[in-house]
Amino acid sequence: MSSDDDVVEPEVMGTPTYLEEFCKDYFPKREGQLTIIEVGTWKGASAFKMISACNNNCKVYCVDTWLGSLEHYDSIQRDSNGYPNIFGDFWTNVKRAGYEDIVVPVTLPSTIAAEYLQNKGIQADVIYIDAAHDYKNTLSDLEAFWPILKKESGSLFFGDDFHDDWFGVVGAVQEFGFKIGVRHSVNGKTWFFKV
After folding, report:
1. Residue 47 contacts by C-beta under 8 Å, 6 or more apart in sequence?
2. What average pLDDT score do residues 118-142 get?
3. Distance, CA of 147 to CA of 89 (rounded, Å)
4. Least confident of 41-50, 62-71, 111-120
5. What are the domain boundaries of the chain?
6. Degrees to nearest 5, angle at CA 38 with 129 and 6
7. Does the domain spanning 19-194 belong to CATH 3.40.50.150?
8. 102-135: b or e for each residue (b if 16 or more CB lie within 10 Å)?
9. Which end of the chain, N or C, is less surrounded by CB atoms within 10 Å?
10. How far apart are CA 166 and CA 121, in angstroms?
11. Which residues contact 91 (CB under 8 A, 6 or more apart)?
C-alpha cells in the first residue's frame, strides 16, 4: 500500500484523453450537486476528470474491487502478502486531489454494488461503465446499473472502449440498447444513452 509520502499519479491507461470534454458537453445541466456512479475506477483518473467537468459539484460513487480486471490481474503490483495494492494507490490519489468529501469508494463486485446502491436509495444523474470488457460481464453491468439512473431529461449512461479491440463491449452495448428499446449513440470511442 502507498504511504502519504509516496507520489502516486492517477493512471491514464485506458482513460480517454477527451473524457473531460465529453463530460462537459454531455453531463446533465441541473441545479445542485450531480450524483455520479463510476463502475470500474482503477486509480481514479476518469473519476477526477468527471469531478473536474462538473466543477467539483458532485458526489462520485466509485465502484471497484481494486483487485484488477481480467486483462490486468497478472501484471498488477502486490503487497508483501501477495494482495493487490491498487486501492492504496487510488485513495492516495483521492487524498492528494482533495476529493475525500466527493469520492465514495464502493468496494464490491459491480453487480453486487448496483444492488447495494439501489437498496440505499441512490439514484444517479450520470453512470459511467468501464469495468469488465468482455461481453457477458459488460452486459451484466449495463443491466444492473440502468435501473439506478434517474429517468429525468439529461441523465447520462455511458462508457468508453466502443471499438473493434473490445468487441465484447460493442456487442453488449448494442444488445442492451435493443433490450431497453433505445438506440445508443457514439462519440469517438465513447458510447452513450441520454435520457
Report:
1. 36, 38, 41, 60, 62, 99, 103
2. 95
3. 31
4. 62-71
5. 19-194
6. 125
7. yes
8. bbebbeeebbebbeebeeeebebbbbbbbbbbbb
9. N
10. 32
11. 105
